[in-house]
Amino acid sequence: MTSLAELVDRYLPDLVNKHGRQLLTGHYQALHAFRRCRNQHSRVMVLECGDCHNQALLPHSCGHRSCPRCQHHESQRWLERQKTKLLEVDYFMITFTVPAQLRGLFWTNQKVSYDLLLKTAWQTIDSFARRDPQLQGRAGAHAVLHTHARNLDYHPHVHLIVPAGALNERTRQWRQKRKKEEVLFWAPNLSRVFRAKWFEAMRLSGLHCDENLPDEWVVHCKKVGRGEQALAYLGRYLYRGVLPEKNIVADSDGMVSFCYQDNKGKRQIRTLPGGEFLWLLLKHVLPRRFRRVRDFGLLHANAKRLIQLLQLVL
Q1: Cα separation, 244 vs 71, whole angstroms
Q2: N or C: less crowded end of the chain, CB within 10 Å?
Q3: What percentage of the chain reaches a pLDDT higher than 70?
Q4: Which residues is 199 bridged to in the sheet?
Q5: Long-range pairs for 128-135: beta carbons < 8 A, 24 or more residues apart
Q6: Phi–psi pair at 172, nearest 5 degrees
Q7: What are phi and psi of 208, to 5 degrees?
Q8: CA pair distance 44, 46, nearest whole angstrom
Q9: Which pTM does this prediction carry?
């Protein structure tokens, strides 16, 4: 299996020659972390058996959140924390996607744009829950930002896992969707409101886009049962890189090939020059200290007692 560290060593000069002006400090830090993760360049821990006193050297992981080898433990911890908040109701996964014409704006204003995307997506869900005849209250959501499509192209979007219920803050009454409901809210309606809220957020933040934006934006709403499957899906992409090392299938004549599953579940192979492959990975390194995972409404960290009460009642 070809390691990412080997590819960084081999193709870093090509990357710098082609995209040196676009590389940020965070990109160089990520590359440095990839090169020293669990190999001869990393620090080591000495393990000793208490009985026979035999010793072994264990290389340290780099700990970078974009590294495909690291953070499995953190991913599992997040998953278990979210499972403690699950309610005995149906869950829906709602995905908000920005049009391709906005990707240039997102790339040049990453921290602001990603933050606005998470917030406007939640504001859209919250406004629908408060007006919905069956809910009429405060909802909750786990939100996760993704920046890549299945083939690793730059494609910012946000997934929200939303319980099919809401709490009326005035009457303290819990209301939920009927079990036969296959959608939480209609996607075309969500799309229109999300688009309007995004334009307002852009105006307030001073962002400008010279592209002609489409009238229809892509929003998808899918029922996911009790929520554990959706949490597991998101957990795979939280604290590890966008491409597992096992998916790097070839490195030959300056070209790197990796595999992925398309939207129909079929295995596809994509081949790129080595420097372009590294640049493709670096596009998904998030700004320093940016939180890509957020909890809103009823599922916010400040609502622990309320969650426990709802779990008891339900």
Answers
A1: 12
A2: N
A3: 95
A4: none
A5: 128/185, 128/189, 128/190, 128/193, 129/166, 130/166, 132/166, 132/185, 134/175, 134/176, 134/177, 134/178, 135/165, 135/166, 135/175, 135/176, 135/177
A6: 60, 35
A7: -135, 140
A8: 7
A9: 0.88
